[in-house]
Task: structure prediction
Amino acid sequence: MNIYIIVMTQHSQDLKILIICDDGILTQQHVSESLAIYAKHLAKQTSSSDNQSQLPCFQIVETPSLEEGLSLLQQASNSENSFGLVFIDIQVLDNIDAWIHQVMQLDSSLYMVLLAQSRLAYHKLIQRKIEANLLVLAKPVDAITLHQIIFLFTEKWQLLRDKHYYQNNMVCFAAKRIEELQHKVMHDDLTGSPNRILLNDRMAQAILNYQRHDGYFAVLFLDLDKFKAINDTLGHHVGDELLKIIAKRLSQGIRALDTLARLGGDEFVVVMTDLKQLYDVQKTAVKILEAIHQEIIIENHVLRITSSIGIAIYPQDGQNSHVLLRHADEAMYQSKRLGGNQFQFYSKKIQEKLKEAWYLELDLHQAVDKQQFILWYQPQFCLKDQKIKSVEALIRWVHPIKGLLLPIKFMPIALRNGLILPIGQWIIKEAARQNKRWQEAGFDPIQVVIKLDEAQLEQADFIQQIQVILNKTGLPPQYLEFELNENMLVKTRVIQKITELSKLGVSIALNGIGTGCAKWHHLSQLPLNRLKLAKSLIQTLKFNQQDKIILQAVVNMAMHLNMDLLAQGIENSRQLDFLQKQGCTQVQGFYFSKPLAVKAIARLLDSPMMVKKILTAVK
Result:
């Protein structure tokens, strides 16, 4: 029969009570009545309907002999529903010690109540060694005593079950927590991809495997092109979301047996094992490039990005994970140097180039300290006045061994390592000083034009730097022009800085006009003095009606905004003729003059006729 009672916890298992009785005095009815009394007692302590719905079932099983009782206990111990309490009420107790010992071996948590037939039997029994789980009582046992026994042992049984439950739960919780921590240590928080620790472990396993069974595997080092610009313009939250999308695309684009890891920032690594041919690596690299280049929409921003991939092969490109990653990284940088959105395999030739670049970077630090730079200047002419309107300052590095180096050789390094700031400051100082010298020499005043990098404008004291330079050199601010690229104007702080520069009297020019990126309706709100047609527009002129419409639109816009317009990068008479017909009057390019040293510029300034001769000759 089943009796339901209220208990304290929700996770209790059913309690089975075994009665071993051969004289019929202790029956299921007696125990049931006591359980009913116990239930009423607990009902006063709680009235929760939730607990009522989760009550355990007290199942009472009766048997007449110790042998059958032991058999029932053995069967129950092999199942999840074991007995919790045993009543023993039999006439012959000759083998009771051995029986109790067997029971304790089966289940040490079992509680037993042994009923002695007489007081003499009771005294004999208690003189023996009593198990902690055994209670000896002398008959007769009244209902109150039986109730107290059931109350005591069910409470103890409940506490024991609770203890086991919590212990098991703690073990499970600890195991789960350890697993979570191990996963966290081995994986990237943002994308969930394996991190550098797990990557090194996977690569070590691959190396060990292929050392034993001659073979090769590939390491693809991937870096997103111009990712910093996205973070800077749209915010880091957009950059983070982009990285998560890229990680998902990469994981979907590789095989299940390959490893994708994020090293940090926008750097990812793919380890490809079990390769049949190197063509599989090339095919995967192409697949990755295509997947990344697909359109991505984040917060209504439509993004199309590219990536650069470097590939190193074990064992030919390195025999440990450190060397393989370094060589794959070097090959990736070679991809970037070639324009990005491509992959390159590592080679010793690449390593030699990188070594050369590394030594050049060391030399560049010394060049800044020793000021091993000079400025050359390329004239910008006004066709209407037949004069030099301005000169663009262009830096050269006088390398002690390599000789005169053009900015393409070292300025990318300066942009990457932060040397652009001291170099940029030197250019401004030297250009302002030189322009003042020309004025002091009696030449007609001209503007000197200097290209600015965004990093310079982000300096907190940049405006103060310019004020100090103007004060020290004595150059009137209207003869200094700073040139910016149009993609810099998306930042509020850049606009604030150029507004402050304009208040100083410095001219501001915007480069890259005509490529379709500039927000022309915003230009009137910016403190701009001059617009510059993009070199790419002029170099790709097809001299058709569409080009004519674009140029006329730009000329008209500059006229209505009261801004000068410069056409730069002119290389032949056809370009010049086409631009003149559309109304361009300020020009610059190799067709007129290459960049010149200070003395050559001075000769031009000193000879207006020479300038007119140059402009007449090119018509």
